[in-house]
Design goal:
Blueprint: E1 4-5, H1 8-30, E2 35-41, H2 45-60, E3 64-70, H3 76-88, E4 94-97, H4 107-111, H5 125-132, H6 141-154, E5 161-165, H7 172-181, E6 185-189, H8 196-201, E7 205-208, E8 226-229, E9 233-236, E10 245-248, H9 253-256, E11 262-263, H10 270-289
Parallel strand pairs: 1-11, 2-3, 2-4, 5-6, 5-7, 7-8, 8-11
Antiparallel strand pairs: 9-10
Helix pairs in contact: 1-10, 2-10, 6-7, 6-10
Bound molecules: guanine (GUN).
Guanine (GUN) binds at residues 96-99, 121, 141-142, 274.
Amino acid sequence: MSAKIIDGKAFAATVREKVAGHVSRLREVHNIVPGLAVVLVGDDPASEVYVRNKGKQTLEVGMNSYEHKLPEDTPEADLLALVARLNADPAVHGILVQLPLPGHIDEEQVLNAIEPAKDVDGFHILNVGLLATGQKAMVPCTPLGCLMMLRAHHGNLSGLNAVVVGRSNIVGKPMAQLLLRDSCTVTIAHSRTKDLAAVCRGADILVAAVGRAQMIPGDWVKPGATVIDVGINRIPAPEKGEGKSRLVGDVDFDSAVQVAGAITPVPGGVGPMTIACLLANTITACCRANDLPEPSGLTA
Ligand code: GUN
């Protein structure tokens, strides 16, 4: 038996299409152009690629993109001053400060300086609390993308056993909150969990977000389970020659695909959904800022 492959690339394209439709309507009916500001401090190559892709896709759906690139040695006070300017700018509906920030900058302080209504990453402490208490929040993009794919595959998630492997603030914890809100029975597992294999084998929904290449083998997967692989790990591929490498997830895809009912591949699974959900969050923020109805199907 081989699992259904959940095509995140195609799913992300449908999300972007919906977003583009909302952008057109906002422009034509309300004369509003949603705007997303992305701030990058330093020149980390991976972050530069992410930021470039975000800017490109923002423009493609018809929104305004504002990119702010600051040098590595930018004082924290200067970054906070920029965030304050973006908070006050009515053309900016969403603000994202690319992580990681250089070591001399207090990440929490910067994230919590972003106006919560413009916090399209959902990392502000207020949004974390709103999500945890089941109130209207801005929801982190990667877990939101995972939730959209799970809802599309299962319809109703109520009563399913969900195991989230990984307890990060960016993915694991908000993912668990979202699954709980959809009435799953949720377990958060992590590196110290006893008999992680047995815990994983109990999962109808298994979300892997640990950042360790191919850590979860197929025999940890319950037959028929849905596996969402958030990991993006680069590993050397000696069989393909010197210097070549490839991307793999936290799940050993080749064995898991034999057991699971459905599985997201890496690349082409969760990854493309993250930026699509960032655009969706920007539309949501823009509608809320203008007292307009929220777009359906693009929020949690
Ligand atoms: N760096 C890697 N992923 C993310 C993300 O989702 N948001 C931000 N702000 N930085 C990141």
